[in-house]
Amino acid sequence: MSQARVPYLLGHAEIASLFNIERQTSQKWRTEGTLPEPDLLASGNPYWLLATVLHIDGDGVRQVDQQQLADYRASFPHGYDVQDKEQLPVILGIQETGRVLGQDAQAVSRWRNRRRIAEADLVLSGSPLWLLETILADAPQRQRPIDQAEVTKLCAGQRGSQKPRGRRTSTPAVSPPQKPLPAAKTFTAADQAAAAKFLTSVLADGYSVTITPQR
Question: Region annotation Disordered: residue ranges (predicted)?
């Protein structure tokens, strides 16, 4: 990671480490509302301020591991505390970086793999994050144009939505309108041909038939 000054942020992996739980448990806390709404969405991924996460410490059985907290802070030597998400600088994930540079996310990923873009300022839960100022400083050095309209949108807080979690719900199939049931009919010995024709027609339409003999 770069040496830029960055706010203390956590994704699900970092929260899991902080509380000595499984990552799925952190995701469950998010679903149940134990974790509040994310303070930041970048490339559809949720992130929380350290101050936000510490608010749930001691609530029920949730306890922050103080050694893990110290290790987390030490892993960001230029990190600083932010108490309110409104104080966050503009932070970009791969998707937002692509928007600023007029490219898709795949292009940004390739640049990162080939070290043809600035080193990420943060890597949280396996995903790279950049300060907007880092990308704006790096682009001219590589002769890459900047989409000022996208920069303006991001500075105004216009981002994408969160990635959907869990199983996708399929759209229920719409059944075609069914034919009305054929009316009951009575046949005599003299109507054998008509009875056979009626029976064949009803069975062909997928109906079952019950024959009730009468005198």
Answer: 156-184
pTM: 0.72
Helix axes 148-155, 94-101, angle to 10 degrees: 140
Residue 139 burial (10 A CB sphere; 0-12, 13-18, 19+): middle
Which residues are within 8 A (CB) of 20 and not within 5 positions of it... i.e. 6 or more apart?
A: 65, 68
pLDDT exceeds cutoff 70 at 53: yes
Per the prediction, the chain carries an average pLDDT of: 86
pLDDT digits over 188-211, tens only? Answer: 878 788 878 877 776 666 666 777
CB 21 within 8 A of CB 64: no
Residues 6+ apart with CB under 8 A from 54: 64
* Neighbour count for residue 130 (Cβ, 10 Å): 29
Q: Which two tokens stand for residue 132?
A: 């907007």
Tokens of 104: 């898709």
Give the residue among 160, 131, 128 at the shortest CA–CA distance from 11. Answer: 128
Query: 140 and 27 in contact (C-beta within 8 Å)?
Result: no
- The CA distance from 203 to 6, in Å, is 74
* Whole-angstrom distance, CA of residue 200 vs CA of residue 94: 64
pLDDT for 39 beyond 90: yes
E-strand ranges in the chain read: 6-7, 9-10, 40-42, 45-49, 79-80, 91-92, 122-124, 127-131
